[in-house]
Amino acid sequence: MDQTNDIAKLFSRFGASTDSYLEFETEFNYKDPPLTLDKPEAPLAPVLVAGPIPASEPRAPEQPSATALSSLLAEVALARQARVAGLEQEPASEEGTLAPAPVCRARIVALVSSRGGVGRTTLCAALASRLNQAGGRTLAIDLDPQNALHHHLKIEAGVTQIGSAGLQEKVWNDGWQQGLAEVRLLPYGVPGEDERCALERNLRDDRHWLARQLARMALDEQDVVILDTPGGRSVYLEQALDVADQVLVVTTADAASFITLDQMDRVLDAANARPAYSRTNYVVNQFDANREFSRDMLEVLKRRLGTQLLSVIARDERFGEALAYGHDPLAGVSAAREAIVLLSEQLKARFQVPRATGGHAA
Question: What confidence score (pLDDT) does residue 91 get?
């Protein structure tokens, strides 16, 4: 069957004839695209849409590691201790080491305490009257702004004072006032606010300020200098520790004094706070043996301090009365007097031993 007959039959089925069949030519060339295998589509990159940028976009803070934080805290703690104790490192000398403090030939005793109200100034005056050595002088320097030492040494208030600008600029051989038992006193005085600020600024800026003043006096080995300092940390305490052969920490047998011992230990043991030959001992003052609690606290202090506890001085109301009436507190006979006399003899025996060059002794 040819193609023409097939077409005619097809048209007849629809009720049409081949006469109505027309062929059209088109300009389009319809071709099937070649068959291609499906390939996995590559992931489309995300489209970034530009948006307004805030002026300061908040960022999540980075969390430091525990190790880094502890190191930073340790550095801050060390810096704070150096600031409070006044032990900031000094400029190096030409040899690259810290400039040494001028050495005073006299023996120097510093009475310190972690708080007030422990009888430190009273004990300072009593010891000063007993520390005189043959052929030497006993000099007392009041570094406490309360300016109370001259009362205990029976000296009228005078114009001389440690904080005056004139006295700071000249040798301290002038300005001493004669007191009880031939003790010579340089009082703190009552400086004006500007003078006090200038003095404390000098003490902060020059760590060896007191050492330089004492060295300029050309004191002898038989001379004794005793220093009274305010309770607690201060620039006056730092200056006293810088020159002291012997540091006496005055405390009492009570809880308030006991809880401050660690603080005082940190001050005394700070690097370069004291000369290598300096010794530290503790004195329990105003001890009341009639109170059971005081006796218990004394036992606690003995265990805590060990061989550093040098003396226990009983409470004696006559010391307060002597201050009121202008009497010598060591003139009578009492347990407190005997303890102070024994303590002074112990200190004078130490003065006969040459200064050591090693570490601090107990």
Answer: 44
What is this structure's pTM?
A: 0.71
Domain containing 274 equals: 107-351
Residue 253 to residue 298: CA distance in whole angstroms: 6
Distance separating alpha carbons of residues 318 and 274, to the nearest angstrom: 35
d(CA 275, CA 3): 130
Average pLDDT on 82-97 reads 46
Sorted by sequence, the CB contacts under 8 Å of residue 55 that are 6+ apart come out as: none
pLDDT band at 92 (very low <50, low <70, confident <90, very high): very low
The H or E element that residue 81 is part of is: helix 66-85
> Which domain CATH number covers 296?
3.40.50.300
Residue 121 and residue 228 in contact, taking contact as beta carbons nearer than 8 Å? yes
Residue 12 lies in a domain: no
Residue 202 lies in a domain: yes
Q: Which pLDDT belongs to residue 14?
A: 64
Contact 128, 138 (CB under 8 A): yes
Q: Domain count of the chain?
A: 1
Report residue 24's pLDDT band, with 50, 70 and 90 as the boundaries: low
